[in-house]
Amino acid sequence: MIIAVDGPTASGKGTIAKQLAAHFGVPHLDTGLLYRAVGQQVALGGGDPDREADALSACAFPDALLADPILRSEEVGGLASRVSVHPAVRAALFERQRAFAEQPGGAVLDGRDIGTVIAPDADVKLFITASVQERARRRWLEMTSAHIGREDEIPLAEIEKDIVRRDARDINRADAPLKAAPDAMVIDTTRFGKEEAFETVLEAVEEKL
Ligand code: C5P
After folding, report:
1. Would you say the pTM of this structure is higher than 0.80?
2. Is 22 annotated among the ligand-binding residues?
3. Is the model more confident about 110 or about 38?
4. Is any ligand 1 atom within 6 A of the Cβ of residue 31?
5. Which residues contact 29 (CB under 8 A, 6 or more apart)?
6. How far does the centroid of ligand 1 lie from the alpha carbon of residue 21, in Å?
7. Distance from the CA of 153 to the center of ligand 1, in angstroms?
8. In the chain, where are the structural domains located?
9. What angle do CA 82, 162, 52 make, to 5 degrees?
């Protein structure tokens, strides 16, 4: 069973994917982390995104690298969204994601192009979304409680602007843009708390299976 979870930043897709994986007892891959690792390496090395993606996909991303909390920062999210427009970066990361999706017993993957490119044959496709204002509010709360660097001091309006910029880059890129697969179930979590969002998703998934 493959479950594909796509959606824009701070839509709740990561939490929902994790909860679904735990519920069904299957492994979960947050594919954004792969792009974040490339973005981070490119920034550190002052390097070329295509070369970094090849090097990183060849070393298969040790778990220690993907577990680095710095990868979760807004800054690295922005770097990830910039490197992810390069087709060679996407191609270098394809096999690892595909292999993860195909493992026996199933998997849950979340990202931007899981239902459209990585696992177009997924049994369940979800597109999780929420209003820009609500996503900015959630990101702000997350930052304030996590106290990551000085990010807790970023005003809400700045976060909102950043989300709009990141959405535009992800939606408008030529290769694997952010969009719902035609057969995806679109779930808007704007008015839901975390529990309600998961209940709604689980109901939709169980109906589909
Ligand atoms: O999901 P997350 O915010 O961690 O993703 C960071 C960036 O990586 C996204 O803004 C997007 O540009 C890119 N990404 C992507 N395809 C994916 C996952 C993430 O292009 N499957």
Report:
1. yes
2. no
3. 110
4. yes
5. 97, 100, 107, 108, 109, 110
6. 19
7. 24
8. 2-208
9. 20
